[in-house]
Amino acid sequence: MAWELPSKPVRELIRRGATIVLNPRPAWLAELDDAILSGSNMHAIAADPVLAAGTRRTNRANLATWAAANINDPGARVPVVLSEPAVAVARDLVRRGLNESALDAYRIGQGVSLRLWTRVAFTLTTDPAELSELLDVSCRSISTFIDDTVAAISARMQSERADLTRGSHAERRETVMLLLDGAPIGRPRAEARLGYPLTGTHTAAIIWSDDPDSDLGHLDRAADLLATVAGEAHPLSVTASAATRWVWVHGHPDPVRLRAALAGLPAVRLALGPADADLDGFRRSHLHALTTQRMLARLASPQQLATHDEVELVSLITHDPQRADDFIKRTLGRLETAPPEVVDAVRVFVAEQCNASRAAERLFTHRNTLLRRLHRADQLLPRPLATGSVHVAVALEVLHWRGR
């Protein structure tokens, strides 16, 4: 298709506008991310921290590609250059069993980008003829760039899908998905394909990294550490995406030992399901690990490791973020923003069943110091701690997992 360049004045306007877009305001990026991740077909992606982070990186890469091309050659058709974030997301979508409907994200992004670009265009000129030509050319450029990008990503997904159906890893992943979906696959056949006994007690883990620049080999190292702590000679590990591993071990790995072991791998995150028995337990532990991972993502928690047992109540409370915020503010009042030593004093005191001596020992502080901090907390709370300790404990747990 012939591509007609705009007039010279409009080309200069496009260059100026593209320079602005190349360094977008944080509010623009937030608007773009929020619109895409709240799309009707995007729930599975928004709930997965790795896919959500990859989508945000893809948004920025697409903006940068279009803007840079229009600075170098304003108004010309923008060539498709699949960025590494876009390729990684395409690969991960296929590995998660998602289809091309996930590419609706590009169409949503197109709409938001056009809206943002229109705001920029109205700052570039007040001449009606120039503005009309500028908007016409820009809309055609953006829509064509998205069309070309979606076609290229779709082709890449087809290629990834073909690759995924070959090899032993594909067989393990397929078998795991059948088990998780409750498909009628015989236990002996599943165990033979997985090389992992499905009897006994299982603990599932989700191991991932939010940092695209980290050494992804650390994910496999973390899986090895989990197996060591659990005393598991033959763990089951499946590559769910480039930056995610699904792992199962037998037994009950100690979270305290596991946290200490993971300290040397700061870019790695780990969500641990509860130990559960037999084939149903294999499935349930994994689903609980997923719930734990999604809670960490929802709260933007800095915690490196979380177990489902630790966060089950917090997960339920924070399922609706706005209601959770309202609950915290009503319950804690000014204690929410109190110094950390005051907040920690209350949290540990309640955890120790309101026993001041045990709480002081756990905090490595003098009992009188603890009592002074508790007195200060009572002054900050909307009602005394003695009359609402359960609600206060729950609110403080949410703050803890948020990193406060």
UniProtKB/TrEMBL annotation:
Gene3D superfamilies in the record: PucR C-terminal helix-turn-helix domain (1.10.10.2840)
Transmembrane regions listed in the UniProt entry: none
Family: Belongs to the CdaR family.
Organism: Actinoplanes aureus
Protein name, per record: PucR family transcriptional regulator
InterPro entries attached to this UniProt entry: CdaR-like_regulators (IPR051448), CdaR_GGDEF (IPR041522), PucR_C-HTH_dom (IPR025736), PucR_C-HTH_sf (IPR042070)
Ranges where the PucR C-terminal helix-turn-helix domain occurs: 343-396
Any one Pfam family match given in the protein's UniProt record, by short name: HTH_30
All copies of domain CdaR GGDEF-like, residue ranges: 190-295
Domain of life from the UniProt record: Bacteria
